[in-house]
Amino acid sequence: MTNEMEYLMYLFACGAKGKTASPPEKKVDWNKILDLAINQSITYTVAMAIKKSETGCPEELRNRFIAMLRGGAIKNAIKTEGILKLVNKMKDEGIDVIIIKGIDVSRYYANPECRISADTDLLIKPVDEKRAICFLKKEGFFITGRKATDYHSEATHPLLGMVELHIKLLPDIFNLEIFEEGQLEKSAFSEKKQVDYYELPFYGLSATNNIIFLTYHMMKHLMVSGISLGMIMDFLLYSKNNIDRIDKKIYKDMLKNTHYYHTMQLILGLSVKYFGFNENDFPIKPLIQDDEISLILSDLEDGGWQGLNEASKRYDFYKYYLRKRTLHGDQKKKNNFFLGKEYFSFRVSKVFLPMSEMKKSYPLLNQYAFLYFAFSLHRIVSKISVRFSMLILDKKKYNVNEAEFTELNDKRIEMFKKLEIM
Q1: Which CA distances in Å does 306 have to 227, 233, 255?
Q2: What are phi and psi of 11, to 5 degrees?
Q3: Which of 14, 240, 358, 368 has the most CB within a 10 Å radius?
Q4: To which H or E segment does residue 286 belong?
C-alpha cells in the first residue's frame, strides 16, 4: 500500500465521520491522492475533509476538490429528494418497496450528500415487478429489461439517474451457503423498518438483515472483481450506528457458516487501524494481521472502485472460485445446479432476445406480439451467428483453464487462500 492510499483512507474516514484531518505524516503526492479519490468514487467526502482542515493540500488542488464537492453535493441532494418522492409514489400505487444500500446507508455519513452513488437500488416483490416497471415508464424512465440471468432490471431517468429494481437481494449462487431460495427476501419484507429522511418516509431493511446483506454484498464483489473504500465505509458506519439493534449471535453464526468470517474480521481490523473505529462498533471482534490486511488493501488499490481497473482480467478468478470453493452435500449440489441454470439461461438469452430488442428487427411485433416465437425461429434459421451461439455460446464464459491464468489471477488465488476463503 502506498503512502497516498494510506492518507486517502484517513481523509475519507475524517470526511465520513465529520472530523478535522491532520496533515500527512509521510510524504505524499497530492495529485495521486486526487486520482485515487476519483478512482475509488469518494471524491466529495474526501473534499469535505480537506475543506474543513489544514492538510497542506496545494491551493490549486484544494480549489479543485472543493469545486467538485459543491457541484456534486447539490446534485446528490436534489437526486435523493427526487428518489424519496418516487418511492412514496410507488407505495401509494400499492407497490411494496425497500431501499437497499444507497440512501439507507448514506444517512450515517456526516454529510450524506457527499456519498457518491452510481445508482439507486430498490427491492420489490417478484409479483410487483411488472407493475413497478410500468410505473417507472410513466415517470419518464427508460427501462432495460431483466435478462434471465439477472436478478434486477435497470431503469434510467434524465434527472434521477439509474434505478435498479431488485427481485432478489443477491444472486442464488451466493445464497446457497446459508439461505433457502427466497428466505432472505421474505425476511426483508416481514421485518422492514420505516425511516424518516428529508421529511419523507421510506422502508429499509432491519438492522440484522441489513448487516448480513451488506456483508454478503461486499463478499460478492470481492469474489467477482473487488471491493471499494466506500463499500467498506457503508458497512462500518451502519454497524456503528446500529450496533444495539443488530442480533450479534445471528450475525456471527451466519458468518461461521460461510468462509467469510476471517476476511470480515480483517476488514474490521483495517478499519480500526486506518479508519479510527473501535472494536465495540462491530458485531464480531476485529482482527489486525498486517500481512493479510496488506493483501486486501493492495487488491483494493490496484483494482480501483469495485475492481473495475482489472475487472476483465479478474473475471477468470471468479469463475475459478465458484468451482473450487469448498462445499459439501446439498451445498455442492445446489452450487452445480445454479451454475448449470445460469449457463442454460445465458444460452437461451442469446437466442431469444427481449421483446423490446426483437421489435427493432421485426417492427410487425408492435402490432402482433404473438409472432414473437415465429420471428425467433426465423433468427435461428437465418442467422449463422445465432446458430453458432446455440452450439458454442462462448464456452470460455463458463469454463476455466488454469494454464491460461494471468499472474494477477494467481496472486488473487494466493490471497484468497490466506484469507481462508479457499
Answers
A1: 4, 13, 22
A2: -60, -40
A3: 14
A4: none
Element (H, E) at 290: helix 290-303
Q: How far apart are CA 293 and CA 288, in angstroms?
A: 7
Q: Counting beta carbons within 10 angstroms of the beta carbon of residue 11, is it exposed (0 to 12), middle (13 to 18) or buried (19 or more)? A: buried
CB 360 within 8 A of CB 294: no
* Long-range pairs of 335-343 with CB within 8 A, sequence gap ≥ 24: 335/173, 335/176, 338/172, 338/173, 338/176, 339/173, 339/398, 341/172, 342/149, 342/173, 342/398, 343/398
DSSP 168: S
Beta strands, E only, 93-239: 97-100, 119-124, 142-144, 152-157, 161-166, 193-197, 200-204
pLDDT at 393: 46
Q: Which three cell numbers stand for residue 419?
A: 484469507
Q: Are 237 and 211 in contact (CB under 8 A)?
A: no
Which residues, including other chains, have CB under 8 Å from residue 213's CB and lie 6 or more apart? Answer: 100, 169, 170, 184, 188, 205
Q: Tell me the Cα Rg of the chain.
A: 23
- What are the tens digits of pLDDT across the range 76-86? 999 999 999 99
DSSP 352-392: S--HHHHHHH-GGGGT-GGGHHHHHHHHHHH-HHHHHHHHT
Write down the residue that cell numbers 467498506 correspond to: 232
Judged against a pLDDT cut of 50, whether residue 287 lies above it is answered with: yes
Higher pLDDT pick, 280 / 169:
280
CA pair distance 88, 370, nearest whole angstrom:
36
Q: What is the pLDDT of residues 116-174, one digit of tens each?
A: 888 999 999 999 999 999 999 999 999 987 776 678 899 999 999 999 999 998 877 76
> How far is Cα 317 from Cα 393, in angstroms, rounded to an integer?
20
Q: By the 8 A CB rule, do 13 and 38 touch?
A: no
- How far is residue 367's CA from residue 117's CA, in Å, rounded to a whole number? 40
Instruction: Name the pTM for this structure.
Output: 0.85
pLDDT above 50: residue 420: yes
Q: Alpha-carbon distance 167 to 119, whole Å?
A: 16
